Amino acid sequence: MAKKTYIKAITDALDIVLDEDPKTLIFGEDVGKNGGVFRTTQGLQEKYGEDRVFDTPLAESGILGMATGLGVTGWRPIPEIQFMGFSFEAVDQIVGQQARMRFRFDGKQTSPVTIRTPYGGGTHTAEMHADNLENYFTGTPGLRVVMPSNPYDAKGLLISSVENNDPVLFMENLKLYRSMKDDIPDGKYTVPLDKANVSREGTDITIVAYGAEVNEALKVADKLAEEKISVEVIDLRTVSPIDTETIFKSLEKTHKVVVVQEAQKMAGVGAQVASAISEDAIMSLDAPIGRVAAPNSVYPFAQSEDIWIPGEEEIEAKVREILNY
Amino acid sequence: MANKPIVDFETIKKDLSNTPKPIQVLNENAEIVDQKVFDSFSDDDLVEFMKKMVWERALHEQTMNFSRQGRMGFYAPTEGEEASEMGTVLAMKKQDYLLPAYRDIPQLIQHGATVTEAYLWSRGHVVGNKYEARAMMPQIIIGAAYNEAAGVALGLKKNGEDAIAFTYTGDGGTSQGDSYEGMNFAGAYQAPALFIVQNNGFAISTPRKKQTAAPTLAQKAVAAGIPSVQVDGMDILACYKVAQAAREYITAGNGPVMIETLTYRYGAHSSAGDDPKRYRTEEETKPWFDKDPLIRLRKVLEDKGLWSDEDEEKLVDEYKSSFKDAIKEADAVEPDTVSAMLKRTFEVPTPEIKAEIAKFEEKESK
Fold first, then answer.
1. pLDDT tens digit string along B103-138?
2. Among candidates B181, B116, B163, B109, which has minimal Cα distance to B138?
3. Residue ranges of chain A that CATH labels 3.40.50.920
4. How far is the CA of A195 from the CAs of A184, A235, B51, B241, in angstroms?
5. Which of A144, A226, B220, B264 is deepest in the core (most CB within 10 A)?
6. CATH entry, A2-184, from 3.40.50.2000, 2.60.120.10, 3.40.50.620, 3.40.50.970
7. Is the alpha carbon torsion for B262, B263, B265, B270 positive or negative?
């Protein structure tokens, strides 16, 4: 056990998969000598050589097209898209090619690709560097979308993603990279790709969240505990698939739910969770489903992020509203 | 002092058109223009090339017949492109990895897929994609195959294989950013990839001249640092020799090559029924029909006493009869099921998909 940041946990996972599987390859813009613009791949080229960890020309579709091609020739690519906003350049390779590979060939050829990419607000970056874009990808059959909320999960989920034989979009929260530290095991461990985590047990109300919002939800739970309000927090960990079983089980106990996301409200993960509850667990509820999400504007420029991103305050208000329904 | 500009762009622009003549062995009058290369082929070789082109044309004719009978799905006519398609694919080896586009079904079959599988692909049945051939499924997204070819080539290189990736696109495909990215990546890694542009004159209805101001499409490789060449795409001997030379150069570790074949699509873009008369005239089309690759080689073979109309008719009958057997085989394949589709979406089904599989399996068992 050692205290490690979210980003160091990711580097740890990459080190482990490079060491364990000689077929793994890391590539992307500036991931080699520079160790990535966030230093996520720091030291890996030095340790594993330029054949395993290498820089690419500056072209996202080219990077992911290369990943597709390497995948069908026996390699296990772990490409990096430097910022998730740049992934639009490569949507065909993710959605049109990799996610369909197993289906097309009935498993004869597959796409064991793990695409790592940072996303998420609150660090005042340039435009197209911070958007929460999971909603564009969660509706893609054949693709898993993973969004760890803490260092322990980041490491375990990344190892599971790389070991998975289907494409995985692994979204790394930019703000958590260096702001979050946890005790995590030194060696290899995995976290399943289809199981939500009950981050905190409670009996009065359930908050369903993912990514950085899990930590905001936990702060609200701490605060309300002082008033003897018992909040259960569920961390989805993976937003495709969504582990509805864990959510439904929680609702049988709490009968109230607030679904939280950092992304805009329209047609997203929160809507899917609310829809699943409405369809299959509505009888567990004794209040409407509460939702907390960002406003449906274009993602704000850096200076206005703080008035836009939903956080502790918005979650607390919604939880109180549902509790008092 | 005269006001001389610092740079003479007009001259630079004109120089772009100073490109070598397309490589040719047999010209449109069936005259041998490169005797040395011609002599490198045995009589058997020449007959074999002719048989392959007759096979491709017969495949086209029979498949269009099936299409008119409503027995095919999506199919892209290949008539006119026999020299370009057969010439290049015959220079490849079994271990090479093919990334075809939708008009490259004849090459996919030559590379190891069966005609039955090709027909099942056209109809839209997954069994059609489970061929033994080392190949990607025919690419629908123009340009995507070029990107993937760079990755396949790098993978083969890392595997230490004596194999290359070879991929096809058309004149329209060279306008896609992806086709540049793919060539550029392959160049950057000196990966063993052969990029073939079959310039057949049209992207559906849009003519080649509207795609780009570049005087040749072969030039599109230059910016990526890749050697490229134009070849007469109606001359199978030239197509074969150039593709073979490219493969040798690539497997010697010299990085990728791009070939532009100058060919022509005689028919419509697809069997869905677009009418080429809407966008091109007979005056434009006729000279290309006169350059027909089969006419050319047939004449050479007849002069040598190696070929006759009867030989050809007999072959065409044989081929067409084999295609009729193939479609019967395709007819006999069990239809797909929804539960099977769900099962091949992920290796480990998600909880939602698991529930759907159970639901559909129950329905399908009734």
1. 999 999 999 999 999 999 999 999 999 999 999 999
2. B109
3. 197-323
4. 19, 9, 59, 57
5. A144
6. 3.40.50.970
7. negative
Please report the pLDDT score of residue B39 as a whole number: 98
Annotated catalytic residues of A are 129
H-type helices in B160-235, by residue range?
A: 177-188, 208-211
Test B152 with A73 for CB contact under 8 angstroms.
yes
Ordered by start, the domain boundaries in chain B are 17-334, 336-366
8 A C-beta contact, residue B173 and residue B101: yes
pLDDT grade, residue B273 (50/70/90)?
confident
Residue A1 Cα to chain centre, angstroms: 23
Q: Do A241 and B350 touch (CB under 8 A)?
A: yes
> Which option is the CATH number for B17-334: 3.40.50.970, 3.30.565.10, 3.20.20.100, 1.20.210.10?
3.40.50.970
Is residue A190 within 8 A of residue A163, CB to CB? The reply is: yes
What is the number of CB-based contacts under 8 A between chain A and chain B? 135
* Domain A197-323 sits in CATH 3.40.50.920: yes
pTM assigned to the model: 0.97
> What is the token pair recorded at B230?
């134009």
Contact list in A for residue B120 (CB cut-off 8 A) is none
How many alpha carbons lie under 13 Å from residue A65 in its C-beta half-sphere? 32
Q: State chain B's mean pLDDT as an integer.
A: 96
Q: Are B47 and B77 contacting, i.e. CB atoms less than 8 angstroms apart?
A: no
Q: In this predicted model, what pLDDT tens digit does every residue of A12-42 receive, in sequence order?
A: 999 999 999 999 999 999 999 999 999 999 9
The residue type of B221 is A
Give the integer Cα–Cα distance in Å for B32 and B300.
9
Burial class (CB in 10 A: 0-12, 13-18, 19+), A265: middle
Chain B hits for A195, CB-CB cut-off 8 Å, are none
Reported ipTM exceeds the 0.90 cut: yes
Chain centre distance of CA A184: 18
Domain with CATH 3.40.50.970 in chain A: 2-184
Q: What is the pLDDT of residues B292-303, one digit of tens each?
A: 999 999 999 999
Q: Chain B contacts of A105, Cβ < 8 Å?
A: 126, 129-130, 137
